[in-house]
Protein 1
Amino acid sequence: MFDKRILDKSRNLQNKLAKKLLARGVGANQVTVVGFVIGMLALPLLAINQPISALFCILLNRLLDGLDGTLARLTKPTDKGGFLDIVLDFLFYSSIPLGFAFMNVEENALAAAVLIYAFVGTGCSFLAFAVIAAKRKMDSTDYPNKSFYYLGGLTEASETIFVFALMCIFPLWFTSLAYTFAVLCIITTVLRIRAGMELF
């Protein structure tokens, strides 16, 4: 919901950082992989009850995720890079509720499972729409620089990271936050299914 606005406001900063990395010979795929590894460190950190350290890894992952796309656009975007980026993003997102499940199995496991299930809904509806949109040669006017058709919703990257941040700062709220965000993810999934049925 807020992704486009945040991307627009952060574009200048990302361009400056990306140009510095490019001057040092750093490629987009390298940044994607490093960002993923850093993001995945949040899982064991959550498991050992270090949510603030995990939050640092989550935020650094998101910074690098923005930089890899900017780097790709400054050079030459590739299908391989777009594929790698989206696959690693989904693996990263689902690892955070899993980390909270390990943190406190009795209190958090069921809520984490529900949230991961809701993520499956947003992810598969997002990717299925992108596949058919590509087949029909449709372009996204809101996100023209993406490697594929980027269908928005209530729960995009910005909202997800905001909720992850709240979970890390207030870990005792995890269950309530997870169930609430799962509902929003389900609404997003329903809206995407409706959009697909109307447009296709």
Note: The domain at 3-199 is CATH 1.20.120.1760 (Four Helix Bundle (Hemerythrin (Met), subunit A)).
Protein 2
Amino acid sequence: MRESADRAPDDVRPPDVDAEAARFWDELYGQRDQIWSGRPNPHLVDVAGPLPAGTALDLGCGEGADAIWLAGRGWRVTAVDISATALDRAAARADADGVAALIDFQRHDLIRTFPDGAFDLVSAQFLQSPLDFPREDVLRAAARAVAPGGRLLVVEHGEMPPWSRHDHSHVRFPTPEETLAGLDLDADRWDIERVDGVQRPATGPDGQHAALLDNVVLVRRR
């Protein structure tokens, strides 16, 4: 982010992106030419499919499948991620698919900076991290970015996949009800449209098949 020209030379501020977090995600995306399936997340398709096109904010856009799917249906999308590698990959795919003009890719460390604007749909798909990450604070900022009449869709892992090679015995995933409570929404200004857990078929890296639990929270600002 460009610094103000009138800043004093000794005026030091924290960088907009945490170097350790950026390195972690860039290294993850650098492992292969494509990490994710390239298909939009199914819960986003279920929610946004019937909606008229408007403005959308895609938090943690990764390689851009959700943003590209939305743009292909006429949405104007702000798509953000901390990984420059992921953003470059997403922008290249958007250009190849002919929807680049409808997507504004922005690099944000959501702990430190958040996109400007109000949106008809704010989507937080699996916005979870093995690093220190104030998830509730970020999701509350996501709720504040919803325009009147717009929706916030939060989809989270409800459990670890059985093929995970790491010890996650110490990890506790929030329930959808806990995620909703953490948003701290004013009941007079929001309608709760969906709070539940859904089983989703998935395939592991070595071809394993399992049903994974996704937690889904969908709320609408009045």
Note: The chain has one domain: 19-221.
Protein 3
Amino acid sequence: MTSLKPFLYLALAIVFEVIGTTALKESNGFTRLWPSVVTALAYTVSFTALAFTLKSIPVGLAYAIWSGVGIVLIAAIGWFRFRQTLDTPAIIGLALIVAGVVVINAFSKSLPH
């Protein structure tokens, strides 16, 4: 049985990347102090957790999952929190990203299972 630790680090990296990106939007180009501080701290935690992930998961696959899930979550936050709309091609593209992450996780023999 493979350790879940790399996947927990990857989940942590994704969560903090999403927090950092949301705070980045709130920072208004780093003109607001606290959202800027949250951005820096969240990205630090995210990249640290991603570095631990890369001890066990190949960089290409880890990055594909990290960025793919992050893109979808940030798009959802943009939609709900910032009222940024998505057109049909954007929604189709996001669905393809989700499909790609599912295929990697379900079928890739490069991931520790």
Note: Residues 22 and 98 are 20 Å apart (CA to CA).
Protein 4
Amino acid sequence: MRKMIDLDSFDRRLLDEVRHDNLQPARVLAEKVGLSLSAVLRRLRRLREEKVIVADIAVVNPALTGSALTMHVLIQMQQAGPQTMDSFAREIVRHPEITAAWDVTGDDDFLLKVQVGSMEEYDVFTRRALGEDKGVHSFKTLITIRNIIENELARRPLRDR
């Protein structure tokens, strides 16, 4: 396990800012967190090198890309042994409908975030990805009504974040 990185209050404020909008110019970040431009650039470089920031990504509006339905799927495996779990984890990354996945504790073994355009597409996905996997014992689907955080972020213009 990796050692935790020592983060001061400036690092934490900087991380909070880029977590909500990673396109902010460094000069704007410097003003917001109370550091010089060079200090912000140096800290961002260090945070990336030390893998505190692991990716700069875009949050895509699924309604505009044909994937308007979001499901969270709880998976129970037949056996929760390392080989079964590892095999399933390797397999799920091959399905583009799965946009996030977690290995979880409790009654369920995995939690998947699945994005599709229709219930018919979801049916095809579950038959192909879950129904054909002999390691899957059962699954339960939670249909997302709305994403509160992403909806709130989408309402605010980038310059106001």
Note: The two ends are 34 Å apart (CA to CA).
